[in-house]
Amino acid sequence: MSTNYQVNDKGYYGQYGGAFIPEMLYPNVEALKARYLEIMADAQFQADLQQLLRDYVGRPTPLYFAPRLSAHYGTRIYLKREDLNHTGAHKINNTVGQILLAERLGKKRIIAETGAGQHGVATATVCALKGMECIVYMGATDVERQAPNVARMRMLGAKVVPVHSGDKTLKDATNEAIRDWIRYPEETHYIIGSVVGPHPFPDMVARFQAVISEEMRRQLKAATGSECPDHIIACVGGGSNAAGAFYHYLEETQVNLIAVEAAGRGLQSGHSAATTALGRTGILHGSKTLLMQTQDGQVTEPYSISAGLDYPGIGPMHAHLFSSKRAQFQYVTDEEALTAAFELSRLEGIIPALETAHAFAALKHLSFGPKEVVVINLSGRGDKDLSTYIKHLND
Amino acid sequence: MIATKNRIKALFEQGDKEVLSIYFTAGYPNLGDTVTVLKSLAAAGVDMVEIGIPFSDPMADGPTIQQSGQRALENGMTLSLLFEQLENIREEVKIPLVLMGYLNVVYQYGIELFCKKCSELGIDGVILPDLPMDLYEEAYKATFERYGLSFIQLITPQSSEERIRKIDALSDGFIYMVSSAATTGGAGQFSEAQEAYFERVRGMNLSKPTVIGFGIADHESFQAACAHARGAIIGSAFIRAIRGVDTEELAECIHQFVQKIRFGN
Ligand SMILES: Cc1ncc(COP(=O)(O)O)c(C=O)c1O
To answer: Is B60 on the interface with A (CB under 8 A)?
Structure first.
């Protein structure tokens, strides 16, 4: 099989990726790089992973044909129900995998960054499951706007550390997690929450999320007679749910991949997180990728109503999908996302996460034929966003 | 260009000298203070200076240096402006000067242009913590060498002997020996484990001199570092000393600081 869109053996997707890390992290990243494929291929590892995905996470998640949404948009829309996973989002696919990996690397202490708190909750959950110490770094702004998830992490026994540097959001939480790893390299594994960071993290996280499209192929075959849909839509913060939904279709170029970024208050408003529209190639958090930044190379503060999309970069795989035009990128504003969240709630009885709502809002930008099959990756449920939704209920 | 390389080399050739190197952030405390700080450090008898290029996301720095960088950015500091400020620096400051920053800022400026500018201004070396040795060798080394710039690399307590030997072979000027697995600004005296690490490295008889950085804050820790290496780099403690100091008072403040480091109270 040709692999135009997979990582190469040097850790790059096209010109993006690599491992731009200080020497202090070299032993950890090198050990991971040397061992992750071998560990993941191990039969016992796979047996443990499959068992947890089935009995603990609740996989496979359904592929649900959404009749009223389909009628509304005049096409055939299927929803991949990652919101039905334990903890309510796709994030746990990755944390279950990485905790098993951390065990095999002999690590005792787990750190993570989180934006919306979904990854933090998913990490705290698997740490509780394995009896491991868990420290989650979270921007102080996000601690406030995602309070229910902060409470969940604490209930699960994790220590949540609010980060006050920079804009106090996901980027800053990631800086602080990296600093922690530099300080305590020997006992610690860093469970990164998206397809970002130095190689091999983007590839490793993509492989753990790839279960989404693996199941999709089987489920689509049963539902439509073909493993391939015409279009797949997913929202992109760092890009892990999109990477998982796209993974087994990357080389099948007849499948149109649609990645949706947060435009915040609008692309030209100065308050946006649409990296592919506003960014240039740069280096942040250990990889070369597209990055929102000033002329002088200072990373700019992103903005989105959705904490999980509020990130100035994008995983190197997606930077490559963008520049090679393999994926089509869409930009959705706060307001469009809110509208879409209400629409999905009223049409299908499903309240999506604010991040996920961006993927649904893209439906209004696009037009699909009545026979076409569209899969939307429903990355998470909206419980954590209720206070935001309630504020807009009467608008 | 040959002359540039020799400034760092010449310093370490002075046999028994305890090399005191100071890190500070360009454009801090005030935007226009860069040259004042440099001249004051040289006048106070510091042997070498690392000039920090501020970056929005300094992942290898502790809170003190992070805050100074944040302040410098708010002051309006940029790499282009730093080069302007350093235009005539070699007329007055003769000690080795090393620029320290993160790759993205240099990458946006342009690697080739950056190296050219450094060499024109008389900068001797560069430290980019997030440009690892392997990537440096592959994509950057030829350019750095063409412009006579020393690329200074870090080693840590976790670095294997094989890795340290490779860094020794590839690096230039001196080796920056990170005292512990820590971001900058860590505290206090050295532990037994740290001393064992310093001695392990010393026992390797590397071809480049080693300088200890991270956690050196006073006369005692400077002395302790010099017992294990050719010198030490002080960053956070110096930043704290000049925090909020008026431009007119910098020279005196810096003189006092350096005296205390060299000779105690
Ligand atoms: C439900 C949900 N979807 C999407 C994201 C964005 O992350 P990614 O782009 O890695 O899927 C998040 C992040 O917190 C999330 O919670």
So the answer is: yes
A280 contacts in chain B (CB < 8 Å): 108
- Cβ within 8 Å, pair A296-B107: no
- Rounded to an integer, what is the distance from CA A133 to the centroid of its chain? 23
**Identical fold between A22-52+91-205 and A58-89+209-391:** yes
Q: What residues does each domain of chain A span?
A: 22-52+91-205, 58-89+209-391
Q: Collect all residues with Cβ–Cβ distance below 8 Å to A24 and sequence separation of at least 6.
A: A182, A185, B60, B154, B156, B158, B178, B181
Sheet of A133-139, strand order = A159-163, A133-139, A109-114, A188-190
**Residue B179: closest CA among chain A residues belongs to which residue?**
A24
Whether domain A22-52+91-205 has CATH 3.90.180.10? no
Mean pLDDT by 10 residues, chain A (395 residues): 83 97 94 97 98 98 98 98 98 98 97 96 98 97 92 98 92 96 94 98 98 98 98 98 98 98 97 98 98 97 94 97 98 98 98 98 98 98 94 81
Q: Which pLDDT value is given to residue A355?
A: 97
CB contact under 8 A, A23 and B109: no
Please check the confidence at residue B265 and state whether its pLDDT lies above 90: no
Tokens found for residue A117: 């708190």
Amino acid at B156: T
With contact defined as beta carbons under 8 Å apart, do A81 and A63 qualify? yes
The torsion of the CA quartet A359, A365, A367, A373, rounded to 10 degrees, works out to -10
Pick the CATH number of A58-89+209-391 from 3.40.50.1100, 3.40.30.10, 3.90.190.10, 3.40.50.10440: 3.40.50.1100
DSSP sequence for B140-199: IHHHHHHTT-EE-EEE-TT--HHHHHHHHHH--S-EEEESSSS-TT--SSPPHHHHHHHH
Residue A356 CB–ligand 1 contact under 6 Å: yes
Tokens of A350: 């499903």
What pLDDT is attached to residue B190?
84
> Which stretches of chain A are assigned E, i.e. beta strand?
12-13, 16-17, 63-65, 76-81, 109-114, 133-139, 159-163, 188-190, 231-235, 256-264, 280-284, 287-291, 327-333, 373-378
